[in-house]
Amino acid sequence: MNFVFCLYVYFPFGGLQRDFLKIASIAMERGHTVRVLTMDWQGDKPAGLDVQLLPHSAISNHRLCQKFTRTVTALLSDISCDAVVGFNKMPGLDLYYAADSCYQSRMRETRSAAYRLMGRCRTYAGFEKAVFSPESKAEILLLSPQEKQKFIDCYGTPEERFHLLPPGISKDRFRSTNASSIREELRVELGLSEDHIMLLMVGSAFQTKGVDRAIKAVASLPETLRKRVRMFILGRSKIDAFLSLAKKVNLADQVNFLGGRDDVPRFLLAADLLLHPARTENTGTALIEAMAAGLPVVVTENCGYAFHVREAGAGKVVPMPFHQEALDKTLEEVLSGSELRLLGENGVQYAERIDMTGLHDKAVDIIEAVAGRRKQR
Predict the structure, then answer these.
(1) Model-level pTM?
(2) Sheet of 229-234, strands arranged across
């Protein structure tokens, strides 16, 4: 079969982008052809993947996305394919990979009626409606069960169009038999002793992931505990504001931004706790990866995969609505207590009981089924 995959931008260290590439790779392994329409591609292009760059420029992101979707819509009318798969919301899709939370619901909760009338909001809400309205034909590859009801409430999307996917972490994220030696080796590289407390954050878009919240929580710790902490943030984002905040709260020497990394599994084994106080998070693959590696987690309740942390007893879930004081207290309790090892073991055992790796294969199964039905029409 011939598939067209659409996404705004590809870069190697985004969670959505990694999922896109894995799904595309599995589709090609099964003998399908995959053509990619995107505005920008950063990093290597896998052999056999047909990447068509459609560069655009505009004075704002939403206008940029408008231009791209118009170009894609025009191209699709001339492309013969069995299914169009979108990894961002846009018109004309047969399937949408729902890596983002419900935009309309989030705007209703956080923005005024006047703001929702602005061009940016109307554009993104319009793209979302094109996917989720009852009139749309798009099937939804759903990652977060908690988002499903939000889409239904906002758009009246028929339930049968949702297909819930399991988590999809790589097998190298599971704790290995030589985990102790990997932990010791990396901590030596990072200049850490066993007395140091290594806090880890993983993911791009640092404001969304709550890096500022995490820095403030560390700053609030009692002095004897705070001195032992070293924070390491992996991912791609602007860092100036966070460096300024770390300096302001006297943590400049304890907060480290390492950029995007290819050796995340080593950090999962070396760290003592994963912090993920995100402002919004459809899923949070890093949470599942941490659990599989035996790394305890502190996460905000609004993250889609936070329920796995709670069910596994693999960490602490900070309730919503968010209050900085609640995160501060939770972090101090976890680091001061004696539960870290137990929380980590709970995560490992949970990861052995449920499907943690099937997302990408299941997604291709559904794409194939939808494409097959289209061919029969």
Answers:
(1) 0.83
(2) 255-259, 229-234, 197-202, 273-276, 297-300, 315-318
